[in-house]
UniProtKB/TrEMBL annotation:
Localization (cell): Cytoplasm
PANTHER family xref list: CHAPERONE PROTEIN TORD, CHAPERONE PROTEIN YCDY
Species lineage: Bacteria, Pseudomonadati, Pseudomonadota, Gammaproteobacteria, Vibrionales
Protein name: Chaperone protein TorD
Family: Belongs to the TorD/DmsD family. TorD subfamily.
Family annotation (InterPro entries): Chaperone_TorD (IPR023069), DMSO/NO3_reduct_chaperone (IPR020945), HscB_C_sf (IPR036386), TorD-like_sf (IPR036411), TorD/DmsD_chaperones (IPR050289)
Length: 217
């Protein structure tokens, strides 16, 4: 049981890390931490999984390029704005509604579905993050909380139900639009830092889905 809890905590941390990375521009302090030993160790651990080896290496290459980038923090902030705070034509907007909604507008059905899920599981969106509920950072934060919720169940059957809910959430609320979002990032992120990050996220979500599918068998 302790191994199950520890593994889930590691999974949640990865979702929360990506949620944070895609929620706001990185500060100079953040960038310094990304170049530190702790991040190197973390990425090395992720890269030991065969399915993540290539996307981890690509992200590490982007980090290495960032070290020699002039005005790195300002330029990366400009990349963030150009991708995620732009228009559908020029950027890669981080909202599910833009990829799988019916109207092509914000706050479409995916946002409504997310609001319902958060209410059902009593998992609130962070008040300071004033974005539609289908923003990638909100969905990833929710997934992290859903994982920890499984750890908090005293009954094994209830814990298994929450694990199944994670699988369903990945398949119906994340992987139904993440590939298109990743493609948009790759096409429009010239420097490549965020494109590499989202590609790593996509690879991890696919791996996590396979893990959860195995858990249900």
């Amino acid at each position: 049981m302790q191994e199950f809890i520890a593994f889930n905590e590691q999974r949640a941390e990865i979702y929360w890390w990506m949620s944070s990375l895609l929620s706001r521009e990185l500060t100079q302090e953040d960038i310094t931490e990304y170049h530190g030993g702790e991040m190197y160790t973390f990425l090395s651990g992720l890269g030991m999984t065969p399915e993540l080896k290539q996307p981890v290496e690509a992200f590490r290459d982007a980090l290495k390029k960032l070290e020699s980038r002039e005005d790195a923090q300002l330029e990366l902030a400009a990349d963030f704005c150009g991708l995620f705070l732009s228009t559908p034509k020029n950027g890669a907007l981080p909202y599910a509604s833009m990829y799988v909604g019916e109207s092509g507008l914000l706050n479409d059905k995916p946002a409504q579905d997310m609001n319902k899920l958060m209410a059902d599981y009593n998992i609130a969106q962070r008040k300071e993050f004033n974005e539609p509920a289908d923003h990638i950072a909100v969905e990833l934060d929710f997934m992290g909380n859903l994982i920890i919720l499984a750890n908090q169940q005293e009954d094994e059957k209830k814990a298994e139900d929450v694990m199944q809910a994670q699988h369903q959430f990945l398949e119906t609320m994340l992987l139904n639009w993440l590939p298109a979002f990743s493609q948009a990032c790759s096409a429009r992120d010239k420097f490549g830092f965020y494109a590499a990050a989202v590609n790593l996220l996509l690879a991890f979500c696919k791996l996590d889905t396979a893990f959860l599918a195995g858990e249900e068998q």
